[in-house]
Design a protein that fits this description.
The chain is mainly α. The chain is 79% helix and 0% strand. Helix 2 runs antiparallel to helix 3 and helix 10 packs antiparallel against helix 13. The radius of gyration is 19 Å and the shape is globular. The termini are far apart.
Length: 290
């Protein structure tokens, strides 16, 4: 049972899926409109976990040749040979995506479901198939996947565009590149061996560390903008604490582009996202119960 669960977590990239679902719930929390029922929140979360899992599993299948070349990914189910090649795997992933979109459409509306689809499509096709092997813009454009999750959460509350969820979507867009660039810098030999043109692999250290620093500063500042639109102190604490720490570790990485500092910056990005989402959820809960 434990091995089966571990395989499912790996195949569907559920750790990433949980972060994406949490980002969607942050979109729910900061959106203005009638509160969702508990079952709508559950259905939205499950639909995003399913859609992101389908895209993640397709990424495993499509990139199995690259994954075999990287120490970090060579034990994934398709790369290791635990799962064989078959046309039925992509069919199953499309089926999971369809069920997830149907659940979202029936419970939180067609607009929210459309954003869920765009997130999965961006990661599964735009990033994995079109850009990952060809362009240093791969993860920049791929960052839209997380942004669509925030917009899906907000659209579940009110399909009309709103300022604060849009700001959070921009923050998620800016967060993804430095997060993955930091990992690529720490695991540079892996990406170089696989021929994946991540920015730290194909540019000098001064260039990619500056790109990471610029993104971290921009997202830290933009993450504070919702305070001008009524988000409370709990949100502000989360945004300020996470953003400040991420900027500090990015400055340290710029000063000393070592693998240790790159990995520290990677974990700082996770902390920044966690504190931002937690601040949004706590602020939303405080507003609900006030």
């Amino acid at each position: 049972m434990r091995a089966t669960a571990a395989t499912a977590v790996s195949l569907l990239k559920l750790r990433i899926g949980v972060a994406i679902a949490a980002s969607a719930l942050a979109g729910v929390a900061v959106a203005s409109g009638p509160a969702l029922s508990w079952w709508q929140v559950l259905a939205l979360s499950l639909s995003i976990l399913g859609a992101s899992g389908a895209a993640g599993a397709f990424n495993h299948y499509y990139d199995r040749d690259l994954d075999r070349l990287m120490a970090r990914t060579r034990n994934r189910p398709f790369a290791s040979g635990a799962f064989g090649e078959s046309i039925w795997w992509p069919v199953a992933f499309v089926g999971l995506l369809a069920v997830s979109l149907g659940l979202a459409s029936l419970t939180v509306g067609h607009i929210a479901a459309a954003y869920v689809f765009l997130g999965a499509f961006t990661y599964g096709i735009v990033y994995t198939v079109w850009l990952k092997r060809r362009s240093t813009w791969n993860i920049v454009v791929g960052g839209l996947a997380g942004s669509f999750a925030v917009l899906a959460g907000a659209a579940a509350v009110d399909p009309s565009p709103q300022v604060v969820p849009t700001v959070l979507a921009i923050v998620l867009f800016l967060w993804t590149p430095p997060h993955f660039w930091s990992l690529a810098a720490a695991k540079g030999q892996d990406y170089a061996r696989a021929g994946i043109p991540m920015l730290p692999v194909v540019t000098p250290a001064r260039a990619w560390t500056m790109a990471i620093l610029a993104h971290s500063v921009a997202l830290a500042l933009i993450a504070l903008l919702p305070l001008w639109f009524g988000e409370g102190i709990l949100y502000g604490i989360g945004a300020a604490a996470g953003g400040s720490y991420f900027v500090w570790t990015s400055i340290r990485l710029y000063s000393d582009p070592s693998k240790a500092n790159a990995m520290a910056n990677f974990f700082a990005s996770l902390l920044q996202l966690g504190l931002l989402v937690a601040g949004a959820l706590l602020a939303g809960a405080a507003g609900y119960w006030s």
